[in-house]
Amino acid sequence: MHILRRELDQTEQTGTTLYVDEEGRYVQESAGSTSRNDVPEIIADRIKRLERVEQRRCDKAAQKVGLLVIGLPDYHPLLKDSEQWLADLRQQLDKMLPRLRAATAQEREQHDRHWTPAFISDEPNGDREE
Prior knowledge:
Blueprint: H1 2-7, E1 13-20, E2 26-30, E3 33-37, E4 52-56, H2 57-68, H3 82-96, E5 100-102, H4 105-110, E6 119-121
Antiparallel strand pairs: 1-2, 1-4, 2-3, 5-6
């Protein structure tokens, strides 16, 4: 998790462009490769999302942290307020990091993370899933 925390400060672009196309598909373009998928729920509301972004290393790390750490919010660089989300995520992770541990099978199940690795804080109220 310490490696991902360091990545949250890296603003270099990854070479991937993210956007939702005219057909309403989520698009990731990089180096001649394009993938189209369903729009992630977090950016489904077009009023809350940007038209297009160049993905950065910190964006990729933030998405991974949101998936791995129970109690931290999901993140997406296409959110209009993604910079504030990223700052909040850094602050919350910094607070949780000293007490972060692997979640038990029961905790993973409780938080719908059955088949994925997950981490959780031993801090009281460390679980702030919204």
